[in-house]
Amino acid sequence: MNNIIQELITTYFNNDKSQMEVLKSEEKRIIVEAPPGYGKTKLLLSKTLYNLLSHIPKNHEKVLMLTFSNNSTSKMKLDLFQNLDNYPYNVRSWINSKIQITNFHGLASGILEKYGYLLDAKLKNLRNLQIVNEYDIKNINNIKNLLDFKHSVDNALENKIFTSLNKYNDTVLNELLPQNKLTYNSILTLTIQLLQDNLELLSLYKKLYSKIIVDEFQDTNHLNLRIIELLIGKDTNIELYGDPLQRIYGFIGTVDNIFDIVGEKYNFNFYKLETNYRFKGNGYLINLEKRVRTYADNPVRGFDKLASYSHENITVYDNHQKETKNVVEKIKRLHESNPDKKIAILTARRGKDIDLIMNELNQNSITYFNALELNTESIDYKSFCDECAKAFQSYFDSEKNIVKKELNKWYLNFKGNFRVASTQQQSLFTLLTAFLKDIVGDRSYRLLNREGKYNYILSVFLEHKLSKYLSAIENPIQVLTIHTSKGLEWDIIFLVDVEQGMLPSYSGMCKSCEYNIDCKINEIRGKSRLFIEQLSVFYVAVTRAKENVYISLSEKNANNFNTNISCILDELKIVPTRYN
Q1: DSSP 8-state code for residue 176
Q2: Cβ distance 546 to 553 under 8 Å?
């Protein structure tokens, strides 16, 4: 039976050599570069099943599959469920018993609930503790220890994180835990201390999880990485999947250059998926995506390989006013002919340029959701998420069922007690409504038990991930930053203002660039990490589209100052079509 199932799995990947190489690889440690749309999830799960049928891991050992959110965890579980749908019951049951799919906080919580008493007896009742963020804590003496540590984690300051970790944990255990509270970060930090201080316990988990898989590895922060490293033994099988180009703006606390660092340190073998299935049949989007990846792999050789390219969807205008009018005209035509299509207008930053586009939308009576008001780095946004977390824990602290009716009651109660004082807060309630509507209709969420649903919703609030539900808002047209768009998808993308000082950004590159007169950076090609970071921002923007991307730029900005075409387009040998 095992051989028959393996043959069926193999047949699925027969036409993709790069996926087949990963499926059949026998190395203990592999890194798979897997861009969005390249069939990563199907491959990851299929390889797991294929190896299990070859008794890897063996006996009572398990596969630990780690994601970065409860949302990703539940979707991965649903995908596994669907993959196993046609298997005999006994095979399904056995495979499910061999795989643990969770996120880092879920893994850490499970360890603390079983063995946290070695640090403090109160940790045995982890589910009864209120989870808070550091900025929401009052009435403790050493709050500075917590705030400084939070700052170090968010800014990926590795040395400061691990020199202050024990002091942070001491403050949590001695001052916060007596109030029946823990910080979200402390679930990870206490687990790290517990495993480091109890080598027999660590050895037990190393033997239990003899195979580890991490999805979206580019989103790993230093606490996540320390947990992974603690669990790696000399015989551990480990697979890391992700896309280095999806890491933009040093995405909150993530480890810089993590694929190369971990790959070299632990002697990983590298694989790269080659076929984009999402854009299959769309030569324009495939060309854009491949240009970025060809250049990023090796800027000098990549540049030489590229031929000049123009497309009617990539347009340069004499000034921003013309760009604004034409972009809005296109959106109006698209929306009138396909009102159900979801459209996002992406900008690298807030400012007068995007304000003029929104004014033009208003002038044309085009309704849109202004997600620019949702500044995910602002105190207001984070405070709103923290207030949601506090109110949610308070309302559902008993065994009250987390069903649609109760969620509606909680929402009305929460909104009734919240003083809405700004348009951003109004937008946040719109987003909260969209989030709640989305999850109650999500099959992967509905399959969860009460505890799973509770943790799912709470983690969205505690991780400040409400913005990840922007695409669930019913308004089909949205305006937002590229940073906020990460991880989301729309049918059609309008990427505006792809010019000097915008993309690349002024603060991120142009301010200190010695080539900012003509934006010809050929002399530093392959030597500028800043440029690759800005290229990643461009890449994230164009890969948010499922069907089409319109790219626009102007030779004069909203203030009528001359500006250059983005060096990103120049380096990718993209020649914009001039608008007449």
Answers
A1: I
A2: no
pLDDT tens digit sequence for 293-348: 999 988 889 999 999 999 999 999 999 999 999 999 999 999 999 999 999 999 99
A 10 A CB-CB count for 535 gives: 23
Distance of CA 107 to the CA centre of its chain: 19
Q: Which of 418, 453, 472 is the last residue of a domain?
A: 472
pLDDT of residue 532: 87
Residue closest to 567 by CA, chosen among 530, 321, 304, 326: 530
204 in the same domain as 102: yes
The reply to whether 373 falls in a domain is no
Closest CA to 502 of 482, 532, 524, 523: 482
Of 246, 182, 250, the residue nearest 222 (C-alpha):
250
Shared domain for 507 and 563, answered yes or no, is: yes
pLDDT of residue 251: 55
Kindly report the CATH number assigned to the domain that includes residue 523.
Answer: 3.40.50.300
Q: Is residue 117 part of a domain?
A: no
- Domain assignment present for residue 286? The answer is no
Q: How many other CB atoms are found less than 10 A from the CB of residue 94?
A: 13
Per-residue confidence (pLDDT) for residue 379, from 0 to 100: 84
Tokens 């959110």 belong to 69
Containing domain of residue 311, as a range?
Answer: 291-368+475-578
* C-alpha–C-alpha distance, residues 276 and 273, integer Å: 8
Closest CA to 107 of 401, 450, 394, 455: 455
User: In 366-419, where does DSSP find H-type helix?
Assistant: 379-395, 404-416
Q: pLDDT under 50 in the chain at which residues?
A: none
Please spell the DSSP secondary structure of 102-139, one letter per residue.
EEHHHHHHHHHHHHGGGT-GGGGGGGGSEEE-GGG--S
- Bridge partner list, 499: 565
Residues 358 and 416 in one domain: no
Return d(Cα 161, Cα 565) in angstroms, integer. Answer: 41
Residues 165 and 234 in one domain: no
Answer whether 579's CB lies under 8 Å from 315's CB: yes
551 and 451 in a single domain? The answer is: no
In angstroms, the CA 49 to CA 384 distance is: 41
Asked whether residue 114 is assigned to any structural domain, the reply reads: no
Q: What is the pLDDT of residue 529?
A: 77
Sign of CA dihedral 135, 165, 194, 242: positive
Q: How much is the pLDDT for 364? A: 97
Residues 6+ apart with CB under 8 A from 120: 173, 177
- Whole-prediction pTM: 0.90
pLDDT tens readout for residues 517-572: 788 877 677 667 788 889 999 999 999 999 999 999 999 998 899 998 999 999 99
